[in-house]
Amino acid sequence: MKTLLLARHAKSDWDVAGLRDHDRPLNARGHRDAPAMAQRLVDEGVGVQRIVSSTATRARSTADAYAAAFGLSVSEEPALYAASARAILGVAAALADDVDVAMLVGHNPGMADAVAELTGSFVELPTCAVAECAIEVGSWAELIEGSGRLLRLRTPRD
């Protein structure tokens, strides 16, 4: 069995006029929520082994907070920026099989759609939310629509 955490980036800053969407940073709330959510996962015993992030600044900053908490590095994956559910699950399906617990950090609506496609559970994924999904496969390559179930949805406000 594998565990996939689908994480939406923390709250981003819209105050810089003319900044490309890809380059938007986290705002003050995002800088608070990301490390707090990361510590919460650590405190709850979630053992993330691999973190893959969208290349967008806000997603990468969020992933860096998780990486610091878990003592990991972050791999960037351009395909996670503005990705569809199918693209997100394709990134997961390409993970190495020696990884049992992985986190993908990206954007909505793709992340919420990926949770629905993988588990059949339709969830709202506010900024910095993490959907923890159990996948009944021995290899990531076996990941298909409906092969998972939602274990828990964590949001910064609960």
Q: Can I get a quick summary?
A:
31% of the residues lie in helices and 21% in strands. With 158 residues, it is α/β, with parallel strands linked by helices. The chain has a six-stranded mixed sheet with strand order 3-2-4-1-5-6, with helices on both faces.
What order do the helices and strands come in, and which of them pair?
Blueprint (H helix, E strand, L loop, with lengths): L1 E7 L19 H16 L6 E4 L3 H14 L3 E3 L8 H9 L7 E6 L3 H10 L10 E6 L12 E7 L4
Parallel strand pairs: 1-4, 2-3, 2-4
Antiparallel strand pairs: 1-5, 5-6
Helix pairs in contact: 1-2, 3-4
Task: Explain what you see.
There is one protein chain. With 158 residues, the protein is an alpha/beta fold. The chain is built from four helices and six strands; from the N terminus they run βαβαβαβαββ. The protein has helices at 28-43, 57-70, 85-93, 110-119, and strands spanning 2-8, 50-53, 74-76, 101-106, 130-135, 148-154. A six-stranded mixed beta sheet has the order 3-2-4-1-5-6, sandwiched between helices. Strand 2 (50-53), helix 2 and strand 3 (74-76) form a beta-alpha-beta unit. Helix 1 packs parallel to helix 2 (57-70) and helix 3 (85-93) packs across helix 4. It is globular, with a radius of gyration of 14 Å. The protein starts with a strand and ends with a strand. The model has no long low-confidence stretch (mean pLDDT 96).
Uncertain segments are none
Listing every helix as H and every strand as E from the N terminus to the C terminus, the arrangement reads: EHEHEHEHEE
How many beta-strand runs?
6
**What value does the average pLDDT take?**
96
| Termini gap | 27 Å
Q: Number of helix segments?
A: 4
Helix content: 25-40%
For the report, how would you describe the main beta sheet? 6 strands, mixed
Identify the strand order in the major beta sheet: 3-2-4-1-5-6
Measured on Cα atoms, how large is the radius of gyration? 14 Å
Q: Structural class of the helices, strands and pairings?
A: alpha/beta
Report strand %. Answer: 15-25%
Backbone shape:
globular
